[in-house]
């Protein structure tokens, strides 16, 4: 098996793309991106989130200097500043994403935050196969019938977001426990 660096891992060339076991580790993605991003793009270190399919980079833009008459005007100015950032950085973001995708075997999405406005650019929407029992399908259908969602897929995404918002602390503890299990697995038994 190849070393745990990014070289030597099988890439997208095989049938079906990356397999979970074949994915290069992305433990250093936030540090690599912090070193690779141009100075001045964001006011601080960007937030980097990594999963099996995607790396999402969201940074805070410099605050607006203008005095604006109300919240609606402020929101419009924030959206305009984010749109300007997106246009002005497009070519360089594409090149950085290409390098990161080669290094980590995952797509890269970008986002910017300013005041109360956040926008994500080109994020993935990954299909997930699942089997639901009738009672679970009925929950999704109720959300669709009530106009909360347009489809079962959208209703399921809505439910997952809702659980994520209300279970952040528990999910964080679960992720920490999984990291500990990974460490133990990597270390192996002491003989």
Would you write up a description of this structure?
The protein is α+β, with helices and mostly antiparallel strands. It has 2 domains: 1-124, no CATH class; 127-191, no CATH class. Helices cover 47% and strands 13% of the residues. The protein contains 5 helices and 4 strands, in the order αββαββααα. Strands 1-2-3-4 form a 4-stranded mixed sheet. The radius of gyration is 20 Å and the shape is globular. The model is unreliable at 1-16 (pLDDT under 50).
User: If you average the pLDDT, what whole number results?
Assistant: 85
Largest beta sheet: strand ordering: 1-2-3-4
Shape: globular
Strand content bin:
5-15%
Class computed from helices, strands and strand pairing = alpha+beta
Radius of gyration: 20 Å
Tally the beta strands: 4
Biggest sheet details = 4 strands, mixed
Poorly predicted runs are 1-16
Order of helices and strands: HEEHEEHHH
Q: Give the total of domains.
A: 2
Give the terminus-to-terminus CA distance. 23 Å
Total number of helical segments? Answer: 5
Q: What is the share of helical residues?
A: 40-55%
């Amino acid at each position: 098996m190849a070393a745990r660096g990014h070289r030597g891992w099988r890439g997208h060339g095989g049938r079906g793309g990356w397999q979970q076991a074949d994915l290069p580790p992305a433990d250093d993605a936030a540090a690599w991106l912090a070193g690779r991003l141009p100075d001045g793009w964001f006011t601080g270190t960007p937030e980097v989130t990594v999963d099996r399919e995607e790396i999402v980079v969201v940074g805070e833009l410099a605050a607006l200097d203008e005095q604006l008459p109300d919240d609606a005007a402020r929101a419009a100015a924030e959206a305009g500043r984010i749109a300007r950032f997106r246009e002005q950085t497009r070519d360089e973001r594409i090149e950085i994403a290409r390098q990161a995708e080669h290094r980590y075997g995952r797509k890269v999405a970008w986002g910017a935050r300013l005041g109360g406005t956040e926008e994500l650019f080109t994020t993935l929407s990954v299909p997930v196969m699942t089997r639901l029992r009738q009672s679970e399908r009925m929950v999704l259908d109720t959300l669709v019938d009530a106009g909360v969602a347009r489809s079962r897929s959208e209703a399921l995404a809505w439910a997952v977001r809702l659980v994520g918002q209300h279970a952040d602390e528990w999910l964080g503890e679960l992720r920490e426990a999984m990291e500990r299990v990974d460490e133990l697995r990597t270390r192996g038994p002491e003989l």
